[in-house]
Recover the amino acids of this structure.
């Protein structure tokens, strides 16, 4: 895999993509059920956006057969190209945002009623527990697609993709049972010992231990409160340290029966 960085006219060599796809599956970087070809598509999309393969694999995934990108990454890319957050107006069950780029402004709003109509609000789900944060990122995502479609390539966020009625599925993953369906769609567990370790391995390993210590509700509350759905979307080292320290400050629930 010594040719992994080789590119040809902005496109990754097909053999390189295959090697990266296999690497992504074997290392546990991508969620279980992600096919090699899906991992290859994620990497190639990242190349076209100017991202390194690991950034792409941690920030993009497939939902209902659709390639999606976290809003956090969308905003980071947009800010590099001059997009500014002018205003965020948050009220109970409502968030409105205004973004500006080269003198042009776009305002978008999203409400909890909109989320319910889209089928996003489920009991004990993130929209039910953390509506303020979820509304904020949804509104930002809507505004970005209007103001900077060239930067996000029309990609939806995970929440938007989940709200679209699925007509054709490309996933090979079996349908989840009642309990599994309520679990996060992305596996936070790091790859087992012996597998190829990534630069994000130690962070995910530490976060997995914290998840077990504080419980799911507190764990995902901290993540969503910082604008992230899952720990493997946290790429910046300083952000990792900040969120991990915040997790450490939470009370230890290990061994406490419900």
């Amino acid at each position: 895999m010594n040719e992994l960085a080789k590119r040809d006219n902005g496109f990754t060599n097909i053999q390189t993509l295959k090697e990266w796809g296999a690497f992504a599956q074997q290392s546990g970087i991508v969620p279980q059920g992600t096919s090699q070809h899906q991992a290859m598509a994620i990497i190639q999309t990242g190349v076209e956006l100017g991202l390194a393969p690991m950034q792409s694999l941690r920030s993009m995934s497939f939902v209902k057969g659709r390639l999606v990108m976290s809003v956090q990454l969308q905003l980071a890319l947009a800010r590099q190209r001059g997009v500014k957050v002018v205003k965020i107006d948050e009220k109970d069950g409502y968030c409105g945002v205004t973004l500006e780029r080269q003198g042009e402004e776009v305002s978008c709003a999203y409400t909890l009623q909109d989320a319910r109509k889209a089928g996003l609000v489920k009991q004990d789900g993130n929209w039910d527990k953390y509506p303020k944060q979820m509304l904020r990122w949804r509104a930002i995502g809507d505004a970005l697609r209007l103001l900077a479609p060239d930067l996000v390539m029309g990609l939806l966020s995970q929440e938007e993709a989940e709200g679209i009625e699925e007509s054709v599925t490309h996933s090979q993953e079996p349908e989840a049972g009642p309990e599994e369906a309520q679990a996060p769609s992305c596996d936070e567990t790091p790859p087992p010992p012996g597998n190829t370790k990534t630069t994000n391995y130690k962070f995910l390993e530490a976060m997995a231990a914290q998840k077990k210590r504080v419980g799911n509700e507190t764990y995902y509350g901290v993540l969503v409160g910082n604008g992230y759905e899952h720990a493997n979307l946290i790429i910046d080292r300083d952000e990792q340290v900040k969120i991990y320290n915040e997790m450490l400050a939470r009370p230890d629930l290990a061994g406490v029966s419900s």
Observations:
- The chain has three domains: 7-63, 72-162, 199-258.
